[in-house]
Amino acid sequence: MILRMSLRRLHALFAAFLLASCTAPETFRFERPAVDAWTALPLRLESGRPHVDVEVNGKRFPVLFDLGAGGTVWLDPDVAKAAGARFTGESSTWLDAFGIEQSSRRYVLDAVRAGDFVLRDLEGRELPPVPEPLGGILGWRLLQRFRVLIDFPGRRVVLATGGALPPDVHPELWTRVPFRATSSGIVTDAVADGLPLELVWDTGATRSILKPGRVDPERCGKEAFPTFYAETLRLAGHDFGPLAFVVLDIQEPPGDGLVGQPFFEAHRVLIDWESRELSIEHPAR
Fold it and tell me: In this structure, is the dihedral angle defined by the CA atoms of residues 216, 218, 201 and 25, taken in order, positive or negative?
């Protein structure tokens, strides 16, 4: 069944937009020094995908909140034009999650507002055509300049600088999980029902995913898409399971698979790029 389905259909079912690593960093600068401040972006699900709003040159646009995307703010070509993007005349190529080469034109956005933060001269790229238009994405190359609270239960994303955090967030009480910051994004070691795994964290993936060969097919459910139902998912020695993984033949990113949206629906996660730690809240029981 899975081999007979088109890659376009797989994109639509499992990964809103999985981006492989981007080799050229994209830069921006703060309009004013951002010290000890935080701002919340309302998070909503559209067709099951997490979106936030940003303002580009004074115009508001919805973008996919995609921790697995190696970009800043990438917009569909029509949206980029409407937003007043200044195209540089340069393009770059990269591989998507299914190993397909894509090409994107580069541009500069004069002003991007994310909550209370204003970012200037933001470098980005246009999105290639996808099965279901997204409008745009907000990726980890922008997020890495902040501490980021991903709060699906509270339907918000918090961007924070310095020591600032909302008063209801107490990461000192949460479980700390070390991560590696790679060209593919955030990578952690995990153990799922005794299986050691290297997983990339991706809010843009509508399911958690394992690549073929990581788990015995006999341990998977017999649905149209084989699914491994892990009763335990251990991170830094703490159990955050259960979690279901769809077995899907993706080529990128490297590693064994992805921690997708269902995990974030159950746990608040604070990302601290400076300390290379995730702080994960255990849900109330």
Answer: positive
